Amino acid sequence: MLAEMGIETLEPLLADIPARLRLRRLNLADGLSEAETMARVRQLAGRNSAFEDRLTFRGGGVYRRFIPAAVPAVTSKSEFYTAYTPYQPEASQGWLQATFEFQTMIAELTAMDVSNASLYDGATAVAEAAAMAVVQTGRDRVLVAGYLHPEYLEVLTTYARGRKFHVLQKLPRAGVVDPDELGEPLDQTVAAVIFQQPNFLGLVEDAQALTEAAHQAGALAVACVDPVNLALLQPPGEYGADIAVGEGQQLGLTPSYGGPHLGFIACRSELVRRLPGRLVGESQDARGRRGFVLTLQAREQHIRRDKATSNICTNHALCALAATVYLSYMGPDGLRDVAQTSLTRSHHLERRLAGLRGFRPAFPEAAFVNEFPVRVEGGEGLLARLQEVGILGGLPVGRWFPELEGVLVFCCTELNDAAAIETLVEACNG
Amino acid sequence: MTEPLSFEKSRESLPGPRLPAAGLPGVDPAQVIPRARLRRNRPHLPRLSEPEVMRHFTRLAAMNYSISKNFYPLGSCTMKYNPVTNEVAASLPGFAYLHPYQPEETVQGALELMWDLERALCEIVGVDRMCLQPAAGAHGEWTGLRMIQAFHEDRGEDRSEVIVPDSAHGTNPASAALCGFKVVEVRSDAGGRVSLPDLESKLSPRTAALMLTNPNTLGLFEKEILEVADLVHSVGAKLYYDGANLNALMGICRPGDMGFDVVHLNLHKTFTTPHGGGGPGAGPVGVMKDLEQFLPRPTLERENGHFKLDFERPRSIGRVRSFYGNFGMLVRALTYILAMGADGLSQASEDAVLSANYLRTRLEGALEFPHDGPCKHEFVASARNLTAQGIHATDLAKGLLERGFYAPTIYFPLIVPEAVMVEPTETESKATLDAFTEAVLEIVQLAQTDPERLQAEPTSLPVGRLDEVAAARHPVLRWRPPAQD
User: Which of A195, B227, B239, B452 has its CA 20 to 30 A from that of A354?
Assistant: First the structure.
C-alpha cells in the first residue's frame, strides 16, 4: 500500500502533526489475547454479586422481568447490531421497518398519535418533553406534580439550567397528588405539568384530573408512564395528555447496572414537528413498492444545526428493537398477563407484610399496581439481613425524600414466585 | 422482496404465550384500582407465534446492510469491525443482571471496570478526569458545554457565544444552542483548516468556547492547533474537542497535549462498541483539572482499594442521565482496550490513516479532491466532476449500494459541493479497498456512458429509490388498524 503511494514509511502521512505533540507511547499495558482478555473481564464480573431474579424485590425504575429468548436471539443478529442509522433506506429496510413497528407499538400502548424512534432513557425523555412544552407554549416554567423518579427530576433540572427554564416540584402529603393542592404554583407561566403514573412510589395518580388541571392553566400535560402497567392502566391518550414519555427497560432489556435502556416519547399529532430525534415514515418507490425512510428531518441537527429541536443523533435503536421483539412475542394478552401476575403478587406481598410487626403501608389509602411503599422500623438493618439470605429488599427512598425516611418501596414482577414471596416474608419476620 | 408488517400478519385467534401463573389467588385490578383509571381496550399489538416472530425479524435482518456483511465507508461514523468478544463480555451475568440500586459492596467489580476505563481513556486523550454518564456523542457535547458554562459563571463572567467551524458536525451548533449559547461560525481556509485570521476576528470576551474536531471533518489535521489553542485561551475561552475523529490519533498524539480543555469521545466509533442501527452508544466527556469540580455527579472515587460513588459534589452541573450511563457499552469498550493495549491502539490508528490515504490515492482521477492530502483517517472527495452528465453524489451512493457496498457519507461537510466522505477504518483489507475502488471506477465510467442506468439504481435491493419528499409532506409514522373507529 505504501509503495502505491510512493512512500516507504507512514511518517510522511503524519508529518503535519507538530513534532512536540508526537507521543512516544501510551502508558497502558500491551494488548492481550482473547483468552486473557476474557479472563480479566470475567474476574471483574466475578467481583459483583447479582441477586437472583426471583429474590429481587427492588424496582425504582429498573425491573427484573422475564426476557423471552427470542429477544436476544434477534438483537444479537449482526445484521442489526453492526449497522448504523439508516441513512441509505434501500439498504436499510430491515431497520426502518422494525423502527416503524416500534413507533406503532408505543403509539398503541400510550394511545397517542405518534412516537419517535427512541431516546436515551426515561430521564432524558422527561427532559426532552419539558423542553418541547417550553417551546410550544412560550412559557419558561415546568411543574413536576408529585413523586417523579428523583433521578429523572435531577436530569430535568440539569437540562433546564442549560435550556433556560425553571423546574418547580409540588410534593403531596398523601403519596399521590390532590389536584386541588396544585393551585398556587400552577399559573399562566407554567408550560407543562409533569407527573409519573404510577409514581415513583408505585402509587396510582388521578392522571385525568392532573391533565385537566394542566389544560385549565394553558399548560401541556406530560405523563411519564410505565409501559408494562399500561396493559392495565388508562393510557395517556385517553385522558388527554399531550406528551407521553417513559422508560422501556422492562420490555426485554437486562438491568445492566442501569443501561443501556430505552427512552420513549409520543405525542399528539399537532406536536410532531417539535419531537426530538429520529422518525421513520412510510413511502414508496417508483414501482409502487412500500418502503420506509427517515423523515421530517428538518427538525434534526444535521439539517437545522443550531435551530434543531434537539441535538440528539445516536439514539437507542437496538434497545427499541428489543422492545419491538418483546411486544411482538407477548402480544396484547401476554403483556396483560405479565402486568396482571405482577399486580396479584404485589398485592399478596403487601398484605403479608402489613401483617408483620413493625411494617405498615406508608399510604394505605392510595392504589398501586406492582410497587408499593411500606414504612418499616429499622429498615436499613432489615435490608442487611435480607441481603445475607440473598434477597434484594425494597428500595429505601429516604435518601431522596426526607419525609419518607424509613420507607421501603417493594416491587413484584412475574419472576417473584409465591415461594420467593414466602421466603421474603419469613426473612422480614425473623 | 418486502416483508409485511408484524401487525398485518397478526392472527386474532392466537392465544398469548405461556407465562408464569401467579400461583396465588388472582386479584382483580378493578378491586384495587379505581375503575376510571383502568384501561378499557387492549392495545393493538400483533398476535404472533414464536416461529412467526423469529421468521419476521430474520427476514428484516436480511433486508439490512451491516459491517458484518461488507465494507461500510460511512465517513465520520468510524464503522469498524465490532469484536464479538465485546458482546460476550457485556452479557456476562455478573454485569447484565446488576441492579443499579444494589449496595455498593456488591458491585465493586462494575465500579472497578468503570475506574479502569476512566483511567485508560484519560491516558489516551490526555485529560485529568472523565465522566462516563453521557449516552451518546451529542449528549457528551452538551455536558461538556454545560461544564464550560458553569466554569465561566463561577468566575462571574458572562460569556454567551460558542464558535464552531463551518465544517463542524451538526450536533456542535445544536448542542451549543441548547445550552443557550449564540453560535458563531468560523470559516475554513482554502487548505480546509480553520482560518486563523477569521478565528481571531470572532474571538472576544464573549466567547465561551471554540468547538473543534481534529482531524477535522475534511479528514485533515489542524496543523496550527497550538496557535489556535493559544488564541482561544488568550481571550479566556475554553477549547472543546469533538472526539468523533479520534480514531486517527490514538497513541500518535493527544487532544489534552494540544491544549483542549474538554474532550468527548464516541465509544461507538473509536472503541468498537457496535452502532446498533443508531445506538445505544456512549459519549464519555473528559476535562482538565480546573473543570473537574463541575463534572456530573456521581463521580467515581477510590479509597483504600474500595470503589465508591461520590454524590457530594456541590459544584456539579448535576446529572445528565439516570444511573451511571450506558454501562453495557462501557464493558465493551474496556474489553476492546484490554485486548488492544498500548501497542494495538496506536497500530489501529496508524492503519486507519494508511487505509484512508491508500484509498484516496486510488480514487484520484475518478473524483475531485478539493483539498490536498495527506489526510488522516478519512477524506472528502467531490462528485462535482460528474454533474455535467446529470450524476450527483446521491447517484454515486446508490450505485455503490447496487454493487454490494454501503455508501459513504454524502453532502457533508456542507462546505464541499457534492461531498463524498469516506472513512475506511483500520479493519478493512487491501483487497476490500481495491474492490471498492473498482466499484467507484465502474460507476464513474457509467456516468459517462449510461447515466440513465445509474440514475435508476439500485434495482437489486428490496426496494428502489424511495420518495422522501412525499414521505415528509404527508407523514405516515405508524400503522393503523384497518377498522379503527
Answer: A195
